[in-house]
TrEMBL record:
<dbReference type="GO" id="GO:0006783">
    <property type="term" value="P:heme biosynthetic process"/>
</dbReference>
<comment type="pathway">
    <text>Porphyrin-containing compound metabolism; protoporphyrin-IX biosynthesis; coproporphyrinogen-III from 5-aminolevulinate: step 1/4.</text>
</comment>
<dbReference type="InterPro" id="IPR013785">
    <property type="entry name" value="Aldolase_TIM"/>
</dbReference>
<keyword id="KW-0021">Allosteric enzyme</keyword>
<protein>
    <recommendedName>
        <fullName>Delta-aminolevulinic acid dehydratase</fullName>
        <ecNumber>4.2.1.24</ecNumber>
    </recommendedName>
</protein>
<dbReference type="GO" id="GO:0005829">
    <property type="term" value="C:cytosol"/>
</dbReference>
<keyword id="KW-0150">Chloroplast</keyword>
<feature type="region of interest" description="Disordered">
    <location>
        <begin position="68"/>
        <end position="104"/>
    </location>
</feature>
<keyword id="KW-0456">Lyase</keyword>
<keyword id="KW-0809">Transit peptide</keyword>
<comment type="similarity">
    <text>Belongs to the ALAD family.</text>
</comment>
<keyword id="KW-0627">Porphyrin biosynthesis</keyword>
<keyword id="KW-0149">Chlorophyll biosynthesis</keyword>
<keyword id="KW-0350">Heme biosynthesis</keyword>
<dbReference type="GO" id="GO:0008270">
    <property type="term" value="F:zinc ion binding"/>
</dbReference>
<dbReference type="GO" id="GO:0009507">
    <property type="term" value="C:chloroplast"/>
</dbReference>
<dbReference type="GO" id="GO:0015995">
    <property type="term" value="P:chlorophyll biosynthetic process"/>
</dbReference>
């Protein structure tokens, strides 16, 4: 009588493999992995864990929940105060503002002011040279070669969301005259730069500076008479030609920073006469005769050859005068009103915000930038935190856009980037 030999699955598989090697005609049949069995075991283990914690099965807990029977909440616990803390009766206060500040989520939910890269305008210094020249008084800033370094800086800025730029030229001394005629040369440094940028990056917004000081051999924003008087109406005539030249090159916003009387209306009329109805005017409405401009003048080599700018820039002691300038610029057709400097003049920014429906710009000037940079280098302040706080304060005061040399650095922070 033949005997029956029982094979286990492992033995059977081994036999099939051996047979396959001998005959090359048979292949082992793979066995299905016990997925369903393992998943079932995992569920059983989870149920057991619940039962072990509560002493009851999942089914019992679900039945109680359907019936509205829930376990009692654990008793509240209060963190211990340090030894020596006085035991007092809580103050009788209906309102406790700290309630809305007690967690990061609540603080973020109730934050009133925000800032994004779209609020930032990056000032760029340009020159005729090929190399980027560092500006000693402004660490991290350069006179950019208009063909190469400028394009790289704009590329990096756009990469983190900064799409607005304002151009400031370092004009060769040989091109400077008392009447600043180079300011409206259609083939000058600024028009060529605008053409290049618009060809490479047609979607960016280009602001320009309308003033004679970079082009003047006297270093003033206007034509200087032999007795030292800055000639207002004659200067405005030159500024109109400068603004039209910039618009012809492709500027989106022309920005008269000279503080001559009547220049906004005259520039608007000149632009419209040439068909540039869509070119905006950002007027330096409240530009003060400030001591914070020093590093900027080093960057452009535009210090006045004599005297100061107090007959056309505003007295830092004056507040109500800004309302006069605001009313005039609005009536003459300004599209944006600017306050310069920024942080020392937060009250003026708020004044314009409360008295005009136009967009308000603030210029965080070179002196403000350099002080924050110096404080960071000397480890007196946290540069990044002070930078971001200062920009947020300008926004809180009422600025819609901020011209700042920190624009790309701040945008890196806002984007969570660590790019150089």
């Amino acid at each position: 009588m033949a005997s029956t030999v029982a094979f286990t699955p492992a033995v059977a598989v081994g036999a099939n493999v051996q047979h396959s090697r001998r005959t090359s005609s048979l292949r082992p049949v793979p066995r299905a992995r016990p997925v369903a069995a393992r998943a079932s075991a995992e569920r059983d283990g989870a149920a057991a864990a619940v039962q072990a914690r509560s002493g009851r099965t999942i089914e019992e807990c679900e039945a109680d929940a359907v019936a509205g029977k829930f376990p009692a909440a654990p008793p509240p616990t209060r963190p211990q105060a340090p030894n020596g803390t006085p035991e007092i009766r809580p103050l009788d206060m209906a309102k406790r503002p700290r309630r809305n500040r007690r967690s990061p989520a609540l603080r973020a939910a109730f934050q009133e002011t925000s800032i994004t890269p779209a609020n930032l305008v990056l000032p760029l210094f340009i020159h005729e040279g090929e190399e980027d020249t560092p500006i000693g008084a402004m660490p991290g800033c350069f006179r950019l070669g208009w063909r190469h370094g400028l394009l790289e800086e704009v590329y990096k800025s756009r990469d983190v969301g900064v799409n607005s730029f304002v151009l400031f030229p370092k004009v060769p001394d040989g091109l400077k005259t008392q009447t600043g005629d180079e300011a409206y040369n259609d083939n000058g440094l600024v028009p060529r730069t605008i053409h290049l940028l618009k060809d490479k990056y047609p979607d960016i917004v280009i602001y320009t500076d309308v003033a004679l000081d970079p082009y003047s051999s006297d270093g003033h924003d206007g034509i200087v008479r032999e007795d030292g008087v800055i000639m207002n109406d004659e200067t405005v005539h030159q500024l109109c030609k400068q603004a039209v030249s910039q618009a012809r090159a492709g500027a989106d916003v022309v920005s008269p920073s000279d503080m001559m009387d009547g220049r906004v209306g005259a520039i608007r009329a000149a632009l419209d006469a040439e068909g540039f109805h869509d070119v905006s005017i950002m007027s330096y409405t409240a530009k003060y005769a400030s001591s914070f401009y020093g590093p900027f003048r080093e960057a452009l080599d535009s210090n006045p050859r004599f005297g100061d700018k107090k007959t056309y820039q505003m007295n830092p002691a004056n507040y109500r005068e800004a309302l006069i300038e605001t009313a005039a610029d609005e009536a003459e057709g300004a599209d944006i009103l600017l306050v310069k400097p920024g942080l020392p003049y937060l009250d003026i920014i708020r004044l314009l915000r409360d008295n005009s429906a136009l967009p308000i710009a603030a210029y965080q000037v070179s002196g403000e930038y350099s002080m924050i940079k110096a404080g960071g280098v000397l480890k007196m302040v946290d540069e990044e935190k002070v930078m971001m706080e200062s920009l947020l304060c300008l926004r809180r005061a009422g600025a819609d856009i901020i011209l700042t040399y920190f624009a790309r650095q701040a945008a890196n922070v806002l984007c969570g980037s660590k790019r150089p």
